[in-house]
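Incident review: delayed structure delivery

Summary: a single-chain prediction request sat in the queue longer than the usual turnaround. Root cause was a stuck worker, restarted by the on-call engineer. No data loss occurred. The affected request and its eventual output are reproduced below so the record is complete for anyone auditing the incident later.

Affected input:
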Amino acid sequence: MRLVRPVTLTALVGFGTSAQAQSCWENLTCTGPLDAAFPGEWSTNIFAPSSRTVAPTSILSLANTSVISAWPGSAHIAGNGSALVFDFGKEVGGLATITYTAQGSGALGLAFSEANNYIGLWSDSSNGKFAPGGGDGAIYDNFTTAGNHTYTMDKAHLRGGFRYLTLFLITNETSSTIDINTISLEIGFQPTWSNLQAYQGYFHSSDDDLNKIWYSGAYTLQTNAVPVDTGRWVPTLAVGWANNGSLSNGTTVIVDGAKRDRAVWPGDMGVAVPATFVSIGDLDSVANALQTMYDHQNHDGSFPEAGPPLLQQSSDTYHMWSMIGTYNYVLYTNDTVFLTKNWDRYLHAMEFIYAKVHQPSGLLNVTGIRDWARWQQGFNNSEANMILYHTLQTGADLASWHGDTTGLADTYRSRAVNLSAAINQYCWDAPFGAFKDNATNTSLHPQDANSMAVYFGVVPASSSLSSRGQSISSRLLENWTPIGAETPELPNNISPFISSFEIQAHLTIGQTDRALDLIRRTWGWYLHNPNGTGSTVIEGYLTNGSFGYRNSRGYSYDDSYVSHAHGWSAGPTSALTNYIVGLSVTGRLGSTWTLKPQFGDLEHAQAGFVTSLGKFSAGWNITNGGRSYSLWWNVPAGTIGNVTLPTLPSGKTGKVSIDGKSFKNKSVSKTNGLTFEVGGGNHSIVVVSK
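Output delivered after worker restart:
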């Protein structure tokens, strides 16, 4: 079965372009998708609220954070320092309006926290300064007369991410009191969407935790899509916070975290963008983020490590992530206007980074040593070399898509082949069975480089080096703790960012059970953590289960500085769609695609996403105790895909029928699946044991 490949690709118009969009943050005229692309029972897992104006759901005691009552209800605060905690039930962010009735004089205080264990009269840290005496503190509405009052937070004090709002009374008068009448919050994220539940992708499986983890990643990405004038102000304030920094042009932009740093970080986008594509589908925010990196490219061709207003410099890895982000964006949108506009800058960026490849080793020599928080970087660092390999491979595709006729695509692929050979020659530790952190003699075998080596194909799944991938997968298990994988390059820390690459590495070589195990013990642990948001994915945490990410290595941060809604941790969202359901795009907009399910211990799974070519969806179901399964897909006409049928869970040989007709002379053996090419449309396959 085969259909003709499309002659041309249609550029993605988008669900609301920057030129068309008038931010509903100011004008209440949103231009995002009006409806979910795939409504169904899975919609109950969406954490996004049904309205852009939300209210708390319960009142907690400040003393022990136990529930006092539901909200709306009665909320009386009397006495200096007295407080009530209002729980929104999930991560939210924006500007709050409080109406209250006061007696006497004093001030109504507002303090915010993402995590339950940092609730208090002092907000959790978003500016990085120590508290008390510095840090975020609280904001206040002073009152001098009795009666009804209304307070609305000013825009500079937008609180990007929190679950808990503490309202308290500051007064010198023993008779002063406050009665809270109403609390409303105008959501500040995903500013061009009137319907925050209008997801353009979905996922559903037989495991409810995996379903919630997928949607917690998706919701995190929504909280990271922010109005372009709400970045964290730099330099940060000694006391308090200000989220009125300029981030990019346009209307909406994807940043690293809801609470902080609220800036464009291209490394984070390496995980966040693929997850965004399969879930919420907001690629306008991605385009604006990438464009701001191009607009702030340095004269030597290097990109900043982070976008404005931070504009941090000197990171070879994040420089390359901007280039990889360009590939991902064009893959998902076919926005050739964007590519053409920035092509000369992209070439300058490639010249900058490839000039650091030195002979005779043929390895990248890292001089821009800032990175994701790993403790060591520089020289022939293996992680950076893995990223360069992927940069070259994706650069070859970009050159082809741009229509280059000078042989750049072949040049980049040749360079990638040579780099892979050099990495395997100089960085592989044969006695240990994994890559070293550097080409020098070192006992450090990092999680990041080894995960990326498998995921990016530096050790291909089918070659003389294929056994190295299986060895790496086994060695990575040695870092695991009951609550996630400790990263050796940042000891005592668990990084869901780097673990996002690890789960995809295991899946790349068919180690499905390992990937699902790591998702459950890492993201599942946080999902059920009583101190977490219960709705988003966390930046990182310590192996002892506390939230003091990175502080074990001497960083001078308040432990509450960790972000509890960080898009770089959303790896399971794309992994569950692309590997467990098995549906991925390989050509722009999905002109070509693959369907290669991995069952693991699940009974069924399905997923979908949208490009301007139309809707893509697929799913599978195990039946008869593992002796048979069904697989279906529905993709746009005119596209071409490669479908790989897994072996039966029972291990038996299976007969294959497609669309109700026997697939003659084709079967799934006990050890090998079956791969074939198929065109678009709505199709189904049944595999039954012989």
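Verification: Residues 202-579 form a domain with the Glycosyltransferase fold (CATH 1.50.10.10).
Action items: add queue-age alerting; document worker restart procedure.
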